[in-house]
Amino acid sequence: MGIRLSDATLGDLPESIIKPTYDRTMLTPGIVHIGLGNFHRAHQSWYLHRLFEKGLNKDWAIIGAGVRPYDEQMRQKMKAQDYLTTLIELDPSGKTAEVVGSMIDYVPVQEGNAPLIKQMADPAIRIVALTVTESGYYIDLATKGFDAAHPDMQYDAANPDKPRTAFGAMIAALKMRRDQGVGPFTGQSCDNLQGNGTILHQTLTSLARLSDPELADWIDANCTFPNSMVDCIVPATGPKELALAEEFGITDSVPVTHEQFRQWVIEDKFCAGRPDWDKAGATISDRVHDYETMKIRILNGGHQLISDLGELLSLETISGCMTDPKVHAFFQKVQKEEIVPYVQPVPEFEAIDYLDLIDRRFSNPDIVDTTRRVAFDGSSRHSGFLAPSIRDALAKGGSIEGLALASAFWARYCQGTRNDGSAIEPNDPLWADLNKISHQARKIPHIWLEMRHIYGDLADNAIFANAFERWLLMIGDEGIYAALNAYLKQT
């Protein structure tokens, strides 16, 4: 057994582990972060940790928070180790471990969220940040507007003093701050959504308007919601990751593994101040949209190109997909012919150079990122990550054959069996509907495209619809490899 992680044992950890050099007792809170998953602890938390290492911004420490029952389990694990996290960087050149200490507390998770509301109403808190997944913002997929009919939103609108969701709790805290003259905080989405700050703004003000229009107006006029782009590949933690921490000589209940690469581009739009993230390597820019587009189209879109196909072919990891000659060729051909030509450069990268970077990152064998994890929630990810490339290619008269085939692979994936006959367990919030429609589409392919909340007007585009229907019929009649080979032979 390794040394159990805590403040008291930091000095006892092996010399190979990088440990905080700052005095954690001198940190005071400035941020409440809702959603303490692996990504946050490997990304945003790390940037703040780097600032503390430089002796900067020690009044911006993080207080963790969550709103679901399982978040309390995470709180207990984190509390037992003084809210420290071991980050293990996985790179072909070697592995390194670092203990991050930027989180100093975690709000108790209770029904009605009273402790969270109280914490966010504290004048010391100037930013409330979130990582709640791209499907967690109560967006109506058909209109891209606010889903006011969702039961959670209806509940919070009827019970604004004891809300169920993070957004309801934020609104309740902002009401207290307004009434007490404390002033607003910045709402900062760190989720993988294009225009994530704009979407958070929409969710908060729309929900507030259901119960308190005056408060909604105050939030709209006083709070800020910066858009940002976040990037770092962070696998889920399981037995292998726990064992890896032990190999370093440390017992951590919730270690995080991650790749060497990180990127964070942030719009400078903070109503109550912010840490100097740019001094820790983040990019402060008014071109967040361009960075988002490059990352979402090439990286996230690339993930969707290969994860469904990889699952169908029983390839367990993303790096395994990249070592499969046909899957890798599919990834490269679709990217170079149908995605990259419509992505604008950013100061650091031309689109084709960024693709080369993503190819190397996906191919890292030390990052055990499962195809199942990446394929999760395809109903949000196909509409958000691939559909924009389809629209751009159609508008410019380019090919959409590979993107249509990717949609056909997803439809085949949702039938619930792999190429070898093994079962695919439900892997989408809308799985029951997707599974039913995918089986109907075996005979009538266009039924799949009639999911307007995913495809919108693409269902009416004859070029895309014909290509999709042709590919799905070929997959059904001749098999996955026949369709894949036919596409790769196209010139």
Describe the structure.
- The chain has 491 residues and is α/β, with parallel strands linked by helices.
- It has 2 domains: 3-286, 3-Layer(aba) Sandwich (Rossmann fold); 289-489, Orthogonal Bundle (N-(1-d-carboxylethyl)-l-norvaline Dehydrogenase, domain 2).
- Helices cover 47% and strands 11% of the residues.
- It contains 21 helices and 14 strands.
- It has helices at 38-42, 44-53, 69-80, 114-121, 151-158, 166-180, 196-211, 213-222, 239-247, 288-312, 318-323, 325-339, 351-362, 371-375, 378-395, 401-413, 431-440, 446-449, 452-455, 462-478, 480-489; strands at residues 3-4, 17-18, 29-34, 61-65, 85-91, 94-100, 103-106, 127-130, 186-189, 228-231, 250-251, 256-258, 263-266, 283-284.
- Strands 7-4-3-8-9 form a 5-stranded parallel β-sheet, with helices on both faces.
- β5 (85-91) and β6 form a beta hairpin.
- The chain starts with a strand and ends with a helix.
- InterPro entries: 6-PGluconate_DH-like_C_sf, 6PGD_dom2, Mannitol_DH, Mannitol_DH/Oxidoreductase, Mannitol_DH_C, Mannitol_DH_N, NAD(P)-bd_dom_sf.
- Residues 30-279 form the Mannitol dehydrogenase N-terminal domain.
- Keywords: Oxidoreductase.
